[in-house]
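hi! just following up on the protien thing from before. the input was this:
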Amino acid sequence: MNSSLLQLLVLAGVAVFLILKLRSVLGTREGFEKPPIPLDQARPRANQKFEVIEGGLDRDITDHVAEGSDVARALAAMKQAEPGFSVSEFLGGARGAYEMILMAFERGDLDSIRPFLNDEVEASFAQAINARERQGLTVEANFIGLREMTIAEAEFDSTSRTAEITMRFIGELTTVVRNAAGEVVDGHPTSPKRQRDVWTFARRMGVQDPNWQLVATGD
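and the predicted 3d structure came back as:
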């Protein structure tokens, strides 16, 4: 066997080894393979439109309440009355409103939150604050955080276009109640307590004013 034939056999053996090695790493392809997509078709077009299937799940609703529930249907009716309404955005606003209103009440400052309360809730808050002041009590409060926030109920009146959403909150805060002499009569500055509230917010859908009002409170 001459040297050139020997070199050819060695090269053939190396080629077979490399092919087998590549197949073990990359796998094999069997059956029909689609032709490669041209590069200009593979790139998404800037003005490409996607078809939205009507009747599909609205994740803005089903991410927060059970599909097909009365609450879900009420929220869907609100979105039909006001297409720009977002449940997720409402929840973000409700989170901030809870802290703002709760802390203003603890401080006895109704002026800053009056636009967000209806007349009945404002009157009940004022009554509680006045009773506290008559006893010479002051409250020092610090909001730590919101531990739970869920939608409990939702209703929509198609005639008046009034929406009501009832929220269940569990907040955590520290409170210290002092008497006229400055003595602590309740609470502790470093021992947090959990505050449970059920608040109902209302608003007419489709109007320019985006603010919801607190119309009922409970626990």
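The two ends are 98 Å apart (CA to CA).
The mean pLDDT is 82.
cheers
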